[in-house]
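Listing 4. Sequential folding, example run.
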Amino acid sequence: MDEALFLTVFQKMIFLTMVISAPILLSAIVVGLTISIIQSVTQIQEQTLTFVPKIFAALLVLVVATPWMVDIFTSTTKEMYDYIKVFIS
């Protein structure tokens, strides 16, 4: 395997990982920030209060976005296999 091919495939897979994980992470960040603002305003400083809403938001986004994530993953994987097949032959 050529070094350029390896670096290209590796770069595309790292980008794929970031794209697939972004919706879940962003939802957790938004919910955590919202809960933190509410805690600051109401002066409730319970540290465990943020975990449950973050988990529910992440699970909700995971359930909703799973078809999209699977589609992106399979299409990118097929593209990488085709790229490797063309490059090797």
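-- end of first protein; second protein begins --
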Amino acid sequence: MAEIKVNPTRMELKKLQLRLNTARRGHKLLKDKRDELMKQFLDIVRENKRLRETVEGSLVSVHRGFSTAAAVSSPEMLETALMLPKKESDLSVSYKNLMSVNVPRFKPMQDMEAGGGILDSLNYGFAFTSGELDSAVSELSRLLPDMIRLAEAEKAAQMLAAEIEKTRRRVNALEYIMIPQLQEGIRSITMKLDENERGNTTRLMKVKDMMIEKQFAAKRQTAHPQ
């Protein structure tokens, strides 16, 4: 671990002590932030898991329906039936701040939660299409809101995971590098100042002894003049 190179003075000691107090407060705040990020991340991951299971299960059913429809219908009929959408919708994007992370929020401009019959999701008539195609298209239409929420949850989980990793590196840098360096610098300066203090005390004692010796010598000379 690299040492902090500073002059062993009381002013530098005071500066290092202030930096150490600031580093300790920052370390505590970052640990609290990391813990709260982990809590938010786990909640989103659980929601993401639930949505993924729902979406993947429904997509299997949709794929099975399209496969059956393709088996009983001609490719030209399928292409004609699915050429144009029944309705269109714009997607608005807003952002929500989660522990300094701006995660996206997706919202369809058209309400997709409202229920409706099968005719609301089909853009063709029933004359030349199979029931399997009708059911698959209708189920896929109902699945779209969950797919949007799944995309939102996965993006939020990805962004929170990156922020957690960044916060973890900062916590480790403070805990294992900066704070020990500051503590070592404070110890080094304190030892040097104590050493200087002891040296000054020793010199003062020697000067005092010399002055006392001179006083005794002066008294002896006064008491026994030659």
